[in-house]
Amino acid sequence: NGNDKNSPSTTVTTVLVPDNYDKDKLVVAGVYEDSYSSECAPSQTIQWNGRVFKNLPISYQTLFFTTLLHEGWVVTVPDHEGPQKAFTSGYVEGHAILDAIRATLSFDQIGMQKHAKVVGY
C-alpha cells in the first residue's frame, strides 16, 4: 500500500520542460499540499480543466519554478503523498521525491545528463 517504509508503491510526477532546457539542470518541486484529497495532488491541480494551477498555494509556488523554467531548468513536480494520499508521511514523501528525481533523469525523451545538477525545495 506504500504507507510505510517497508511497502512498495507508485506515484506520479509532472515534468515541466522548457524549450530552452539544459540537460544538466533539474529542480524537484515538493509543492505545498495540506490535504489528503486526490484533487489537491500537484498532478491534478496543475492541469485541471485546461486551466493551469487551480489553487492558490500551487499558484503561489509556481512563481518560484516558473523563474527556473525561464532559466532553462527542467522541473519535476511529484505527487509526493503517493497513491494512498499519505498526508505527512515522511517515508512515503521522501521516497516519492527521490523516485521522481530518478524517473526524470531516466526519461529518455528528455535526455537528461546522468550527473545532472539536482536541487529541490
Automatic annotation (TrEMBL):
Q: What keywords appear on the UniProt entry?
A: Hydrolase, Lipid degradation, Lipid metabolism, Secreted, Virulence
A Gene Ontology cellular component where this protein is annotated is: extracellular region
A Gene Ontology biological process in which this protein takes part is:
lipid catabolic process
Please write the reaction equations for the catalytic activity of this protein.
Answer: a triacylglycerol + H2O = a diacylglycerol + a fatty acid + H(+); a diacylglycerol + H2O = a monoacylglycerol + a fatty acid + H(+); a monoacylglycerol + H2O = glycerol + a fatty acid + H(+)
One Pfam family cited in the UniProt record for this chain: LIP
Q: Where in the cell is it found?
A: Secreted
Q: What is its EC number?
A: 3.1.1.3
Q: Does the keyword Oxidoreductase apply?
A: no
Q: Name one GO molecular function term.
A: triacylglycerol lipase activity
The protein's matches in InterPro entries, at most eight in alphabetical order, are given as: AB_hydrolase_fold (IPR029058), Lipase_secreted (IPR005152)
Superkingdom in the source lineage: Eukaryota
Keyword Hydrolase applies: yes
Q: Which PANTHER family match?
A: LIPASE 5, PTHR34853
In the record, the note on similarity to other proteins reads: Belongs to the AB hydrolase superfamily. Lipase family. Class Lip subfamily.
Q: What is this protein called?
A: triacylglycerol lipase
Q: Which organism is it from?
A: Malassezia sympodialis (Atopic eczema-associated yeast)
